[in-house]
Design goal:
- The protein is of the alpha/beta class.
- About 30% of the residues lie in helices and about 25% in strands.
- The strands form 6 sheets. Strands 1-2-3-15-4-16-22-18-20 form a 9-stranded mixed beta sheet, sandwiched between helices.
- A hairpin with a 2-residue loop joins strand 5 and strand 6.
- Helix 6 packs across helix 11.
- The longest helix has 20 residues.
- The mean pLDDT is about 95.
Length: about 475
């Protein structure tokens, strides 16, 4: 049952393909630090590969046929892709599903204030984070501000070479005796994760040639200085924060890690590593018997809720629209399609960390470099909140991967009583389809910088291609 490190299994051609895939993936991470940026990247990429937007095809009343490629975007945060197969859709699809949201800090709707000579933005953390990991590191702000007239102002500050960055301060070690006695969950409180955005007060008027000083701007001079910059750079007022979606993320590009450059260290790999590998699989498959589908959604980190999460009806609605253009629509056929489908819920798994070995069951844990990961179940403790895949389906997946020589391992998310986590798998399983969790092992999961193995990322893409081309039971 021991698994071999997959680096030992590749020939020269595969090693070259692996490095190309890793570089493309790192570019995706650098250009997709928010859900909106991911969707923009994906749409630009798939349109070059022949995908057409569903709404346009609906207006043209264009009938879909084998080989056609179609996509739909919902609220600029979720996207679904279809490649039409030879068989009717009512016989089921092969589906890849992942999420493109990641833990971060969100700027509140009334965020700006000044205290002690600093201008701040008030934040609310999003998803499961260790709050102490977010202090003193360089941060960037990405997102959109929607003005009252409907104008969309895109914000991306902190990731270009000459951009300023932002940060959350921490108490100096010399005064931290009481702080260091607190539990890790209390060392930094959520309300203390406010980012510093300025320290220079605004001056009114200009210095005269006669040497007279400028007038001071009065109360909240530093805040006024920042607002003046925002007005000049983006033509926005303080009130515009009410209709803004601004995400505070770690500044900096994805990096190769290790002397051997075998790993990738970057923000947001949970779950953009599976999202990108799923995207690449959709672009690499040839003709397929069953319609191939990839759904990349928002809000998984907070329970898959809302209009752009997996619990919304977006996916089901788009399946119905595609079946309508394929001449197959009826409510019963939509139900048959979903119930007959097979899915890989593509999400990350925890990687074994020798520094914290006691948290893992070494026989049932994923190891970096041992291939993509299958989690028969996730959930917490007694499998609470889990999709528990049936043995027949797992056996079928094994047969596909054996045929295509895909390297994989099986795992659980740590020791039974230590916690757990969930994915979108249980939501799709509600339709009655076969679903299993699969993905890539991640070290430092949910930290500002997460680590993956290039080999595992490559193997996940290979596995997703094999699944899309072979999955019908």
């Amino acid at each position: 049952m021991e698994k071999k490190n997959v680096w030992e299994c590749y020939d020269e051609k595969q090693l070259e393909e692996l490095e190309v895939h890793a570089k493309e993936y790192m570019d995706f991470l650098d250009n997709g630090k928010t859900e909106r940026e991911c969707v923009d990247f994906i749409v630009n990429r798939i349109e070059k590969e022949g995908y057409r937007e569903l709404q346009a095809l609906m207006k043209e009343k264009k009938a879909l046929k084998k080989g056609d490629k179609v996509y739909a975007v919902w609220m600029n945060k979720s996207v679904v892709m279809f490649q039409m197969g030879e068989k009717p859709m009512c016989e089921g699809m092969n589906i890849l599903g992942a999420h493109i949201d990641s833990p971060r800090l969100d700027v509140k709707q009334n965020p700006m204030y000044e205290e002690g000579g600093f201008a701040y933005l008030d934040t609310h953390y999003y998803g499961g984070v260790k709050k102490y990991q977010w202090v003193t590191i360089p941060l960037a702000i990405h997102g959109v501000i929607i003005k009252k007239d409907g104008t969309c102002v895109e914000v991306n500050i902190g990731d270009k070479e000459d951009d300023p960055v932002f940060f959350v301060s921490d108490l100096l070690i010399h005064l931290a005796t009481e702080q260091l006695e607190k539990k890790a969950s209390k060392v930094i409180e959520g309300e203390a994760l406010d980012i510093i955005i300025g320290n220079k007060p605004l001056s009114i008027g200009k210095n005269k040639e006669d040497g007279k000083e400028s007038k001071e701007s009065g109360k909240d001079a530093v805040k006024k200085g920042v607002l003046a910059i925002l007005k000049e750079s983006y033509d926005i007022e303080e009130e515009d924060f009410i209709s803004a979606e601004l995400e505070v993320v770690p500044a900096g590009k994805a990096k190769e890690a290790g002397f051997d450059r075998s790993m990738i260290l970057a923000y947001g790999q949970d779950d953009r590593v599976c999202a990108f590998s799923s995207l690449k699989a959709m672009l690499e498959i040839g003709e397929v018997e069953r319609t191939a589908c990839c759904i990349l959604v928002d809000k998984e980190e907070i329970g898959s809720v809302g209009a752009t999460g997996m619990e919304s009806k977006f996916f089901e609605n788009m399946v119905a629209e595609v079946m309508n253009l394929a001449g197959e629509y009826s409510e019963l056929n939509v139900r048959r399609c979903l119930a007959s489908s097979c899915m890989l819920s593509s999400d990350v798994s925890s990687a074994f960390d020798p520094s914290f070995a006691s948290s893992f069951d070494k026989k049932n844990v994923a190891y970096l470099g041992n291939g993509m990961v299958f989690n028969k179940f996730t959930g917490a403790r007694g499998k609470s909140g889990s999709n528990d895949a049936n043995a027949e389906y797992l056996g079928h997946i094994r047969s596909i991967f054996a045929k295509e020589k895909v390297h994989f391992q099986t795992a659980e998310l740590g020791k039974v009583d230590l916690g757990g986590g969930g994915t979108i798998a249980y939501i799709l399983a509600l339709y009655g389809m076969n679903v299993i969790d699969s993905g890539v092992a991640v070290l430092n999961m949910h930290a500002p910088w997460e680590a993956t193995s290039k080999a595992d990322v490559y193997e996940a893409k290979r596995g997703y291609v094999a699944f899309l081309e072979n999955a019908s039971m």
